[in-house]
Write a structure and sequence with these properties.
Layout: H1 2-14, H2 19-65, H3 70-80, E1 88-97, E2 100-111, H4 118-122, E3 124-133
Helix pairs in contact: 2-3
Length: 134
């Protein structure tokens, strides 16, 4: 009986039936981390581009239509921004520099990623600012 037990162990150690699943397990984790990392990077790029587009659009809106009402500008930005507008921070204020009046529009969006890493949960802040002469 001890001879068949040793033979079974020897056959098990020489067998190649589970190598594919072990190799897949070893290769799939870094592969999926890389794929999801690329999706996350693309998402951040998309939101940054969208925020930049909203800032450029509201700047054009102010210069062409001569609108300086904060409520109208806030509504315009929220309609133009395609991301989640609840997390969009809009600051609109006037400043004077060298005797000229400027309308400042600061747009900020915080992206928080779920997961175990504290830095990602706190979020990354995307900002675009425009200083528009009045």
């Amino acid at each position: 009986m001890s001879g068949t037990g040793v033979g079974a162990i020897r056959r098990f150690l020489q067998g190649r039936q589970g190598t594919t699943s072990i190799e897949f397990a070893a290769v799939s984790v870094p592969f999926f981390l890389m794929v999801f990392g690329l999706f996350g990077f693309g998402y951040v790029g998309y939101l940054d581009n969208d925020l930049k587009h909203a800032a450029n659009s509201v700047q054009r809106f102010v210069l062409v239509k001569h609108v300086t009402d904060e409520a109208q500008l806030t509504e315009f930005v929220r309609k133009d921004f395609l991301g989640n507008d609840e997390d969009l921070d809009i600051q609109i204020y006037e400043t004077i520099s060298n005797g000229r009046r400027f309308l400042n529009i600061d747009l900020a969006f915080v992206i928080a990623f779920p997961g175990p890493i504290e830095v990602l949960r706190e979020g990354m802040r995307l900002e675009h600012k425009r200083m528009i002469p009045l």
